[in-house]
Every structure is written in C-alpha cells, then in structure tokens.
Design brief:
Blueprint (H helix, E strand, L loop, with lengths): L1 H33 L18 H5 L3 H4 L2 H29 L7 H9 L6 H14 L9 H23 L4 H8 L4 H29 L3 H4 L8 H11 L4 H34 L1
Helix pairs in contact: 1-12, 4-7, 4-9, 4-11, 6-7, 7-9, 8-9, 9-12
C-alpha cells in the first residue's frame, strides 16, 4: 500500500512538471513554428507555406529597424556586465569570509536594489545623468543600471559558495609553502571556477534581456529588448517571430556552452583529485 501511494504521488508530480514545461515552452514553440511561414504568411495559424523568407527579411534595416546594431549593443553590454559581475562578486565573496565592521550594513545595501522596482532604478539613474549634464547611453548609464540588477545576485551566489568552502585546502597549501597568490591561483580558483562561470552566465543573461532598467538609461540607441518592444508596435509580419527564434537559439547556445565548460572543469578537477 505504501508503494502504491508513492507511485501515485510520483505520477502526480510528473504530470505537474509536464504541465509546467508545456506552459513554459509552449509559446516559444508557437513562435518557432510561425517564424517559418511562407512569404504570404501571417501572424497566426495555419501556416501558409514553409520558408526562410522572414529570416532573410530580418536583417533588412528598412523593414524592421536596426536589429544588427541593437544586437551588437546588447551583446557588448552583456559581456561588460558579465566581466564586472564576476570580478566584483568574487572580491566580495573573498572579503566577506572575514568579519569586519559594517559588514552587515554593507551586505544589506548591496542587495537592496533587488526590492526596488526596476523602472524606478532606471528613472533615477536617468535623472542623475541629466542633472550632471551627461547624456544617458547604453555603455554608461545602462551599464550602471544593469549592475544594480546583476551584482546582488552574483554576490549572493558567491556567499553561498564560500559558506560551503572548507579553508582546510588553503591552509594545507600554505603549510606546503605556497604564497597567497599561489594558493588562490592553484587551489581556490580551480575549485570555484564552475561557480564563477555560473555567475558570469547569470550576469550576462540578466543584462542581455533586461528591459525595465534599460528603458530610461539607454539614451538614443536601442538595445535588443528595446528594439523588440519597438517592433511590436509597427511590425505586423512573421519577421517578429523570426527575431524571437534567432534570439532564443542564441540564448540556448550560450547556456549550453557554459554548461559544457563547467562539465570540462569538473572532470579536470576530478582527475586532479
């Protein structure tokens, strides 16, 4: 009887998970299919032929806007945010391993931006730039706005990593005559490298598709999320679906590459161990 109850609970959880996956990826699958509409196809089913017409039309600036440049800006901004998030989160994690005066206040200040509405942060940064006589731009004000979103997550992740990290490895390295830099480079860094890659992927993903904190800080030139939002108001062809397909495949590719690197690092670490 106990086995039957467990089996029933398992199937209920499995069905719930299947519904969750369907709800999560159902709209993406519809966009993926509709992006292959024929030249005379519309925005709804049924398909009117199958072609790559709208993918070719995607890069025509006169038809859908400056998609190529907006993608380049979002990619550059995401990489900038990723690098800073990884470096600052690592330094913060190392610093908070030791207690110091004001640590609690500094911690709460660093994560306070998570509870502030994103549009308020964007508006505040935009107003500050204007008051200082500076022109908001994607590489300056938007860059800072994105960091207020990615850094708290990165810091929290590194705190969790270092809370589970035993200092015995570092103490052993020092007992064997390793310097502080050698201990960090050859002992600590290889062990936390997968976590740093995760922080970097998290920072890049949050920045790459951030809309609210970019709205008031991007300045004259749109990032990709702003460009997509602008397209929804004036594009009435499946080219919008083609854009969704391309950006989704790009995002999944980045995630798969990051997972592959993490697996390689873990296998290398296991071999060394």
């Amino acid at each position: 009887m106990h086995h039957e109850k467990r089996s029933l609970g398992f199937y209920i959880l499995a069905a719930f998970f299947a519904l969750f996956v369907l709800f999560l990826y159902g709209p993406l699958s519809a966009i993926l299919i509709l992006s292959f509409q024929g030249p005379d196809g519309g925005l709804t089913f049924p398909l009117n032929g199958v072609s790559l017409h709208w993918f070719g039309n995607l890069f025509e600036r006169q038809a859908v806007g400056d998609f190529g440049a907006s993608f380049t800006r979002s990619l550059s901004l995401g990489l900038m945010v990723m690098v800073v998030t990884v470096v600052v989160s690592l330094l913060a994690g190392l610093a908070f391993r030791r207690r110091f005066k004001g640590a609690s206040a500094l911690f709460y200040l660093s994560v306070a931006s998570l509870v502030v509405p994103s549009i308020i942060v964007s508006l505040g940064i935009g107003v500050v730039f204007q008051q200082l006589g500076l022109r908001p731009a994607w590489y300056s004000s938007a860059f800072g706005a994105h960091l207020t979103w990615t850094l708290p997550f990165g810091v929290l992740i590194m705190f969790a990593v270092f809370n589970r990290f035993s200092p015995a490895y570092e103490e052993a390295a020092r007992d064997l005559g390793a310097s502080s830099w050698q201990t960090f480079r050859h002992v600590l860094l290889p062990m936390i490298a997968p976590s740093l890659i995760g922080v970097g992927l998290f920072g890049f993903s949050l920045s790459y598709d951030e809309f609210a904190r970019t709205l008031m800080t991007a300045g004259t030139y749109n990032t990709l999320p702003l460009e997509i939002y602008g397209m929804t108001t004036n594009v009435t062809t499946p080219v919008l679906y083609a854009l969704g397909t391309v950006t989704t495949l790009f995002s999944f590719t980045i995630i798969l590459l990051a997972l592959a690197v993490i697996m390689i690092l873990r296998r290398r670490s296991a071999r060394m161990g």
